[in-house]
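Tutorial handout. Part one gives the primary structure; part two gives the three-dimensional structure as tokens.
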Amino acid sequence: MTASSRPGDRGITCLANNERVPKDDLRIEVCGSIDELSAVLGLVRAENIPAVLNGIIFRIQNELIAAGTEVAEYNTADKISAGHVKQLETEIEQLKKPLGEKPFRFSIPGSTKISALLHFARTVCRRTERRLTAFYRIGGEKTAENSELLPYFNRLSGILFFLAVDSG
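Part two.
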């Protein structure tokens, strides 16, 4: 197996269905952003973090693989479901409880390394959500049908925010 391809030298890559597209195709942008998000979460996991946080992040990284395969239109049973969205909602509510009814305010990243990395992951997640929205808007309707990807990334950025606050 070779690690390089000649079409890649011309800015072309291949989708799961063997369709060749430019490397700046929005679908490739979304997949790359999902990959980047998983890598940032890997930086968090590489730190000395509580086992519970490690478990949440590892689960999310596995869900991101499912999200990427869904965007790339691989024929796989692994898709983001309403159950994934609901799980994030439940975890967000649990993380919000200790904060009480305090009004929302923006948070300045950097109080701890873990918190800063989680805020970084949150911003990559928001970019992923924006790129996915653009992809759907200009022609990704086939992928968008019955997809839970936008709600998932919206909730994912929420839990990353609360994990960052909790880690700061």
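Part three, for discussion. Helices lie at 6-9, 26-45, 51-71, 82-96, 113-137, 141-144, 149-167. The longest helix spans residues 113-137.
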